[in-house]
Amino acid sequence: MPSFIIDGIEYKVEINRKRIKNINFRIEDKTIRVSCPFICTDNYIIKLLKQNEKALIRMAKRSERQESRKEKVLYLGQELDYIEYKKVMFQDNIAYGPSIDKVNEYLEKNSIKVFEKRLELYINEFGEIPNFRLRTRKMKTRWGVNNRSSKTITLNTMLIHYKPELIDYVIVHELSHFKFMDHSSNFWNEVSKHYPNYKKARKELNY
Question: Coil, strand or helix: which one is 164?
Fold first, then answer.
């Protein structure tokens, strides 16, 4: 199995050849998992990794944050004390549950209630935008998606572990896509009207 160095850290490279046309990378557990067509050689994969090193650095940092969150209960950016208990419940900044994973799963499953409240803070600022549905799902590479054809905004359930102001940024980002679908200067001007400190939020989220 080949290996690849990212920011001075050695990562295993796991290549899974399939009947597909495109090449996809993801990073989990200090391993770069590559899905690619059968025709791709190991040397060609390593060459592509070198060409996409900046993107891999961002993916590696995101993976590290996700791994660290598995070991603690984070709710809106605040770490809660954890006590093992038969069911999930919260009291006085203490999270109870069968495991940390189960507590975090519960928070993510119920995240839409929090996101709806954050959305209410900004929705009226945007004037004429279509009626849309707010949905949630766990996503590996995106914090939010605006699907104009189905009039749906989908937010990553993992955002429940981040500070409210970072959730707000993703909401503003996706709402702004109702006016500008690209990431042009007009789009970023729209974002900055509602969230002036967006560059700091982007850096924190790698978004």
Answer: helix
Q: How far apart are CA 160 and CA 108, in angstroms?
A: 6
C-alpha 123/C-alpha 141 separation (Å) is 25
The pTM for the full model equals 0.70
Nearest-angstrom CA–CA distance, 170 and 202: 9
User: Which residues, in sequence order, are CB contacts of 59 under 8 Å at separation 6+?
Assistant: 25, 26, 27
Return the CATH number of 110-205, one of 3.30.2010.10, 2.60.40.10, 3.30.70.120, 3.40.640.10: 3.30.2010.10
Compute mean pLDDT per 10 residues along the chain, 207 residues long, and list them: 84 92 88 93 93 88 68 91 94 94 96 97 92 94 94 97 97 96 96 96 87
How far apart are the C-alpha atoms of 158 and 207, rounded to whole Å?
A: 14
158 close to 112: Cβ distance less than 8 angstroms? no
The 8-class DSSP code of residue 121 comes to: T
Pairwise CA distance, residues 197 & 163, whole Å: 14
Helix axes 53-69, 42-51, angle to 10 degrees: 90
Domain boundaries, the chain: 3-69, 73-106, 110-205
The dihedral built from the CA positions of residue 76, 194, 170 and 147, taken in this order, carries a sign that is positive
